[in-house]
UniProtKB/TrEMBL annotation:
Coiled-coil intervals: none
Organism for this UniProt entry: Tenacibaculum gallaicum
Protein name from the UniProt record: Glycine/D-amino acid oxidase-like deaminating enzyme
Domain (FAD dependent oxidoreductase) ranges: 18-369
Taxonomic lineage: Bacteria, Pseudomonadati, Bacteroidota, Flavobacteriia, Flavobacteriales
One cellular-component annotation, GO: cytoplasm
Length: 371
């Protein structure tokens, strides 16, 4: 049932709209903030189909990462060295921008390093063989070795005896990040409407008619920042990718610290509030996880629990408290799609599971397509 809008509501929210942003995730909120900064008198409206940001912005694991060693080695199979360097550069710059905009304290940023764990000695040796080359490639950006070797100091089981450590990886509190971003947006006079779903849009000369499940209205410019849901509105090469996550009840004397990647990053875990947050397993069913439906599957959840209890905390009583999923946007290339689609329509999508790292920068770049 459509809402019954009053004259006041129509005038205040849906009349003389300069910029409309679809999606209130990291990209959409940063896009709106940059538009407000560049055009302080503009009327800016954000539309969000969820009660909270959908997709992955408030559903991720809070890794402030830019790529494990095995991931970057894999990227070199399909990208040039310059392309991989630029991917890491953009992720690193995006993380610094996020920290600058919100402040480390407000997002509980900690640089506790990232550790890659290996199930086989073969993969470890292969990565070790290419470690120096990757460090050399990234030297101009970090001025020291990104990747070094550590022994199994957290005493995980069923893995190779050494980790490869990312000395620059960090972590954030995803909820605090999103709340602070929303606070900044609202204090800038930008309006957000939740639980409203954009169904399509039609460009008419100098305006765009935006059709939602509640109302159709006009805006001068439209910015689409829906990432994993992009295909519902755009004809762009963006594949949805669901990520399943679980979190334990608090664990006394939980000893792990940092962010951890296992099996080429298809599994990832960390300590948050004395709990283990553990996600991944998409590689068990790539096709099945190419979905925009939230939820969990027995196959992946069972595997997460198995690894949790046999590898991460093998001698500890563990209880699962909660499970959820997020929807990422991926493609055959890691480069994001930030472009002008027509005179009045723009998009910033396909963040490739690196939304925390690059979302702020992509949002800024999306807004600056207006320049």
């Amino acid at each position: 049932m459509k809402l019954n809008f009053s004259y006041w509501e129509l005038k205040e929210w849906f009349t003389n709209v300069d910029f409309t942003v679809v999606g209130s995730g990291i990209v959409g909120l940063n896009c709106a903030l940059q538009l407000s900064k560049n055009y302080p008198k503009a009327k800016i409206l954000i539309l969000e189909k969820g009660v909270l940001p959908q997709g992955a912005s408030t559903k991720n694991a809070g890794f402030a990462c830019f790529g494990s060693l095995s991931e970057l080695i894999d990227d070199l199979e399909t990208h040039t060295e310059d392309e991989v360097f630029n991917l890491v550069k953009k992720r690193w710059e995006g993380l610094q921008l996020l920290r600058t905009i919100l402040g480390d304290k407000n997002i509980n940023f900690q640089q506790n390093k990232g550790y890659e764990l290996f199930l086989t000695s073969e993969l470890y040796e292969s990565c070790l063989h290419k470690k120096e080359a990757i460090n050399k490639l990234l030297q101009p950006l970090f001025s020291s070795d990104v990747f070094t070797v550590d022994d199994n100091k957290f005493h995980f089981k069923k893995i190779y005896r050494n980790y490869i450590t990312n000395n620059f990886e960090g972590q954030i509190d995803t909820g605090k990040m999103a709340a602070k971003l929303l606070e900044k947006v609202l204090s800038s006079g930008i309006k957000i409407i939740n639980t409203i779903h954009v169904e399509n849009f039609i460009e008419n000369n100098e305006q765009v008619a935006v059709k939602t499940n509640q109302i159709t209205f006009n805006t001068k410019k439209l910015f689409i920042a829906t990432n994993g849901f992009a295909n519902q509105l755009l004809n762009e090469k963006v594949q949805p990718a669901r990520a399943q996550v679980l979190i334990t009840k608090p664990i006394e004397n939980l000893h792990i610290k940092g962010t951890f990647h296992l099996d080429k990053g298809y599994y990832y875990f960390r300590n948050i509030d004395d709990r283990v947050l553990f996600g991944g397993g998409r590689n068990l069913d790539f096709k099945g996880e190419e979905t925009t439906d939230f939820g969990q599957t027995v196959l992946i959840q069972n595997k997460l629990e198995e690894i949790l209890k046999t590898t991460i905390l093998p001698n500890t009583k563990v209880e699962i408290e909660h499970r959820w999923s997020g929807i990422m946007g991926v493609g055959n290339q890691k480069k994001t799609i930030v472009k002008q689609l027509s005179n009045n329509v723009f998009c910033g999508v396909r963040l490739g599971g690196m939304g925390v790292a690059i979302g702020s920068l992509v949002g800024k770049e999306l807004a600056e397509l207006m320049d």
